[in-house]
Amino acid sequence: ASSLFALVTLPVEFDASRRALKHLEGLGIIQTEAEMDGARKVLRAAAWTYVAAAIAAVGSWLMYLLLSRRR
Fold first, then answer.
1. What is the spatial distance between Cα 23 and Cα 5, in angstroms, rounded to a whole number?
2. Which of 5, 7, 13 is closest to 55 using CA atoms?
3. Per the confidence metrics, is the pTM higher than 0.85?
């Protein structure tokens, strides 16, 4: 279940990062291109943590699957 959840949330997280950039710019929090680049890098890195979590969840699921077939 956690593997499925991790995979389903990936597009949501990347979309949230994209929308956050628009809101930060719209609110005037980001005013320069350098600030936009920095915010983009931070939000992209945050979204990639979900990719790592999804890979770990799938890896755990595969490990348990393989262990259950050994018996």
1. 26
2. 7
3. no
* Residue 54 near residue 3 (C-beta atoms within 8 A): yes
How many CB atoms are located within 10 Å of the residue 29 CB? 10
Contact 44, 17 (CB under 8 A): yes
Cβ 8 vs Cβ 53: under 8 Å: no
**pLDDT at 10 exceeding the cut of 80:** yes
Tokens 């809101």 sit at which residue? 23
**48: its two tokens:** 């990639």
In the numeric block, which tokens belong to residue 69? 């077939």
The pLDDT of residue 67 is 92
Q: How far apart (Å, rounded) are the C-alpha atoms in residues 49 and 1?
A: 19
